[in-house]
Design brief:
The protein is mainly α. It is built from 4 helices and 5 strands. α1 packs across α2.
Length: about 120
């Protein structure tokens, strides 16, 4: 049986935490702590992502089919603890791209109205 195509737009808008988690997974599989570090490093302080927020977000993303769980394996940076790894699904990549385009459109509109940019209102 062929699965019906899903509309990425039905997932939008994403919360800032969800968008940051998905963006952290664009470059490949990561475990939870690596996702938190990426968001802290690249999020410019706009999203504070603690363990509760992260794992709640990951659970919702797993349930929505935007993220899959990878294989558990030791992380050499953090000793021999077993960690769960997460990766974007094709649908997850489609959704995060759609959200980035949506945000880009909003920013362009704000610039046209001189709300942001070189000449502030």
């Amino acid at each position: 049986m062929v699965k019906p195509l899903r509309d990425a737009g039905e997932q939008l808008p994403l919360t800032p935490a969800t968008f940051q988690v998905l963006m952290a997974l664009v470059d490949g599989e990561r475990h939870g702590y690596a996702i938190m570090r990426d968001v802290a490093e690249h999020g410019d302080g706009t999203v504070k992502l603690g363990p509760g927020t992260l794992y709640g977000t990951l659970k919702r993303l797993l349930d929505a089919g935007l993220v899959d769980e990878g294989m558990e394996r030791p992380d050499p940076e953090l000793g021999d603890e077993r960690r769960r790894y997460y990766r974007l699904t094709k649908f997850g990549l489609t959704v995060v791209r759609a959200e980035a385009r949506r945000l880009e459109t909003l920013v362009r509109s704000a610039r046209r109205r001189k709300l942001i940019g070189l000449e502030p209102a």
